[in-house]
Structures are given as structure tokens and as C-alpha cells.
Amino acid sequence: MPIKNGDALPSAVRTCEVLDAQGNGHIVHNLIDGRPSLLLFIRHFGCIGCSENVGVLAPRFHELAQLHTQVILIGCGPALFIDGFRERHNLLHAPAQVFTDPSLSSHQAAGLRYGIMGGFSPKAIWEMGRAFVNGHTSDRTQGDIRQHAGALLIDGDGVVRLYHRNTTLGDHANGQSIVDAALSIWLKANPDIA
Amino acid sequence: MNLFDYLCTPEPLVHIANIFLLVSFSAKSMLALRALNIIAGGFFIAYFILLPQPLWASIAWNVLFGVVNFWRIWLAILERRPPHLSAEEQALYHRAFTTLTPRAYRKLLDCGQWENGLPPVMLSARGETPKRLWMVAEGLIEVRCINGNIRPIQPGDFVGETAFLSKNPMAADITIAEPVRFISWATRDLENFMDSNPQIGAVLQRLLGQCLVRKLNAAG
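Above: the input entities. Below: the C-alpha cells describing the complete assembly.
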């Protein structure tokens, strides 16, 4: 079931376990730790659409960090691909943590789409071409190609302030909307400055 | 000749080709313009081949135009690829250059050179006009002022930016205090780079200004 803005982050998402690059498990609730967080779900680590997604959003990660919003990327491939993904996308020292959930339980709990058509429909193929022309490439499959991406921005109280559920591989969450929502969260938490 | 007979002649191909050419003239994107030109060229080639006497010279020219357009499109796509940055280049990017795009940062790095330094090497002495601008990636560089004050230069800060911006000699000695890893640019090369890449140059000017303000604030 898709999540609505204003809903509390479902406990099914909170209790999921994701893996870091060393294969160590972390509970999503502990990662969030009561802080405003962007949970950026991506498809498999070699996906051309996700390369485009990260390429578009990564320049905004510093803005999010300045707004005290942490960025948690969650892929769906084996943990051994995390380091290569971070290096390829110049995320080695970026204010973003990368995890993976090969069980897909967190993706499912977040209500993200699952199916082959999102990656191979005419729209998806057009988006693949667009991503290629924009300089992105597809690496070999590093995860489940049927799992789709999405984004969840939650505030410090665990309330969802932005939810995006990708319909196809090029249907990304809008970076400006994410930063705007993070700014709203920050302003709400800092009423004196607002 | 009825419409069907007309459509079976090569002539409609030349109109289709010219329509694509016409549309390409209004394309804002260079990639779209070239892609439309390639499609138009394909129709021109088909037209010239299907003539009772194929026009081989025109066919050859259109093939050549197509090859050039394909090549330029490929180069444009390569130009858009995310640049490869080593771990230390990524660290410096996230520390100091996030206002540049990764590709612009790559160009800036390619204009400079990475260096290692050991204490107590002096990078520049008071009264000299340095021929290089430095940025510390790791380690510690100290500025020794004439009044004896010592100010540390932290990773992510420029060294020699005052002289670079003002063209005046240094007012302090710059010495390496701890083993240091830094990148440096020859001032002449960097000026040429900023002139030929004005957008990157503008961002770099801002970064230099911010660094200067940071140091002034730290100096109280």
C-alpha cells in the first residue's frame, strides 16, 4: 500500500533490517534515530535509471545536510556492490549512507512497486534512452530488476512529509521538492529563525 | 498520377527529409538538432538511391554528414558522463567544491597537480608573489605573520588566495607544519582556465572570496 504524506512512517519500515557494505545489519529505526531523514530507495546498483536518479539528487545532499536531514540510500542488491556504487557515483565522502536490503522487505513495507514492466515498458525504454543521452550507463545487474525505486522524507517525529513511488525506472522524486520539504521540516523545528 | 502512385515514387522522401531538416532548425538542443539531421540524411540517402540514376556523390556526402553527426553526438554523450574521481579527489570535492559540478571539478583538478609536502618546507616567503595557488587536502600548513602570529590552514582552505586575487606579494611566510597532501595550480594556468571557463571561474572566485572571509573571521 502506498504511504500518504502526513502518515507516520509504518512500523513495518522502521523494523526492517538493512545491510551496510560489510554485510552488518542495521534496523531502519536505529538509523533514523529521531532525525529528519530521506530514505532514498533505489533499484539494483547497476541500474541506469538509478544512476540518473543519484546523479540528479546527489548535488542536493549537502543542502539536505545543512538542513539537518540525513540521507539514507537503500538498494536491493548484495552488500558487496555497495562500495563500487559509492565510488562510481562519487559518494565516498558525501553526506549520505548507503545500505542494501536484498530481502526487499523494506521496499515492500514502503509500498514500492514491484514488476517487470516498470523497467521495460515503452516509457521506461524511452527513459533509459534519455538517461543514456544524459551520460549515464547501465552496469551489470546488481539486485532484483523488478524492484522499483522511491523516496520517503520523514521529519524528526517520524511523520512522512514527502513520498514518491517510482512508476518506471526514470520516474524520480523531484530534487527541489525534497529540498523544499526538508526546508519546511527545518523551519518547523526552528520557529525562532522562521 | 493519383496519390498512391505519387507515394510510390522517391519524391515524397525528399519532402520528408526536408521536413526533418526544417524541424531541426528550431531544435534548441544540439543533440536533438544533430539527431534530426541524421534522420533527414537517411531520407535523403534513400531518395538519392531510389532515383532512376542514383546520385552517388550526394549519397556519399550525406553518409559523411551522418558520420560526423554521430561522432559529435557520441562525444557530447561522453562529455555528460559522470567523471571518475579518486577517493581523495572525492573527499576534497565534498569538503570544498560542492558548488561546482563534478565535471567542472574534474576540469579544475586536471588544470592543477597533486603534491606532497614535508615540514619544514616553506611554500612561499613574505614579500614574494607566489607563482602557485594551493589547497590543502590533508595535513597542516601554517601562515607565520610578521607580528609572530601563527595561523593554521585547514584542509579545504586555499593558500595564497590573497596574492592570487590582489596580485600583491605575500604578507606572511607559508610553511608546512605537518606532512601535507595538497593540490596546487600555477597562477597563470589557473587564470587562463578561469578565462576560458567563465562559469567555473565565477564559482571559483566565490570560493576564493569565501575562504578569505573565513580566514578574516578566524583572525578576529
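Note for the figure: The two ends of chain A are 35 Å apart (CA to CA).
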